[in-house]
């Protein structure tokens, strides 16, 4: 019977422990680098990162160009695009809100979104020649490929915030969610103003020493066109009783537990409106305590209409009391000014209450 003999081999090769360890170390290093890059890619990012990803002219098939134009007093660029902007507004109002043509005339548009009670910090006849946006009213125009106006955001730049007033857009481009997009662009604009001109910037500007917020206007929970604002964080709602800003999450919880879910006090019960004028103050005494300023432009325009006496005309150049203005304002107008002053609170007692006659 054939036999089978196993011949032991002595050629086992060599084991390079150092080389094996090096391969493991290299593999681990590569894995950790890939993991680091993956985590960096998936980490939360600043808004500016995403805005920077937007294609600009020549970078993609389409791009959106945003132009900031002064609406009041109107700039040349605003005037040259006024009819285009109005036609877009009319199309939006009739399509989205169901307005009739007589409800969205040029006069309605101008009164609603062009005329502004805000006074230019440069004066009505002094155009801004610096790179720092003046305080006041603007339209942010969104141009598709630089040639087609598809949306306009109406904003006010105020001493403490940018106020988002209104947005109208081409309904044909509603799939772009231009309401959310414009809010993100406005947020980016606010952050850029703070970073470039705010108190902590390299070159702070006096106009922006208190500028730190983005105001989105009214919040109506039952209206989808308004309730989307709660999706932005961190965000706050003003308590309707104390005017204190409260985190929106807490406000929604209080609304959920309120009868009918329509009204709730957002502040703690112990909180008070620190700027409120005491209810015990007699209205006549209040009128004598409220200090007003009449702008120089207002004095010039109103000199003949008010038929000011020479001595009174001089007094209009310095702070005057609300009581002093009683003789020049209708009773209805005077009552409106008084109520407005009471809403502003104790701030009006320090001489910063400026009235501009149109």
From TrEMBL:
One GO cellular component, as annotated: cytoplasm
Keywords: Transferase
The keyword Disulfide bond is assigned to this record: no
Record InterPro entries: N-end_Aminoacyl_Trfase (IPR030700), N-end_Aminoacyl_Trfase_C (IPR007472)
N-end rule aminoacyl transferase C-terminal domain sequence ranges: 85-239
GO MF entries: arginyl-tRNA--protein transferase activity
Pfam families in the cross-refs: ATE_C
Name used for this protein in its record: Arginine-tRNA-protein transferase
């Amino acid at each position: 019977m054939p036999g089978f003999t196993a011949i032991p081999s002595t050629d086992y090769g060599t084991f390079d422990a150092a080389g094996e360890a090096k391969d493991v170390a290299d593999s681990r290093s590569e894995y950790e680098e890939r993991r680091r890059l993956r985590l960096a890619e998936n980490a939360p990012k600043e808004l500016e990162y995403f805005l920077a990803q937007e294609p600009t002219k020549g970078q993609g098939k389409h791009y959106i160009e945003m132009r900031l134009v002064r609406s009041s007093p109107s700039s040349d660029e605003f005037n040259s695009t006024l009819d285009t902007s109005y036609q877009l507004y009319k199309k939006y109002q009739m399509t989205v809100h169901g307005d009739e043509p007589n409800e969205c005339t040029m006069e309605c548009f101008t009164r609603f979104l062009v005329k502004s009670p805000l006074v230019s910090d440069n004066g009505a006849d002094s155009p801004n020649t610096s790179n720092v946006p003046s305080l006041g009213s603007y339209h942010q125009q969104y141009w598709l490929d630089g040639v087609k106006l598809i949306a306009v955001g109406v904003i006010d730049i105020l001493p403490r915030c940018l106020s988002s007033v209104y947005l109208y857009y081409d309904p044909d481009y509603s799939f772009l969610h231009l309401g959310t997009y414009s809010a993100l662009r406005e947020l980016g604009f606010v952050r850029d103003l703070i970073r470039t001109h705010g108190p902590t910037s390299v070159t702070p500007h006096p106009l922006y020493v208190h500028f730190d917020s983005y105001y989105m206007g009214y919040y109506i929970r039952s209206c989808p066109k308004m309730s989307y604002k709660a999706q932005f964080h961190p965000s706050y709602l003003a308590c309707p009783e104390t005017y204190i800003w409260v985190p929106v999450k807490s406000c929604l919880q209080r609304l959920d537990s309120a009868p009918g879910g329509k009204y709730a006090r957002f502040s703690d019960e112990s909180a008070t409106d620190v700027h409120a004028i005491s209810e015990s103050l007699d209205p006549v005494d209040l009128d004598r305590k409220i200090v007003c300023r009449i702008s120089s432009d207002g004095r010039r325009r109103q000199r003949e209409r008010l038929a000011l006496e020479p001595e009174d005309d001089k007094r209009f150049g310095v702070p005057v009391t609300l009581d002093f203005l009683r003789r020049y304002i209708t009773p209805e107008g005077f009552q409106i000014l008084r109520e407005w002053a009471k809403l502003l609170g104790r701030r009006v007692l320090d001489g910063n209450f400026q009235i501009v006659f149109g």
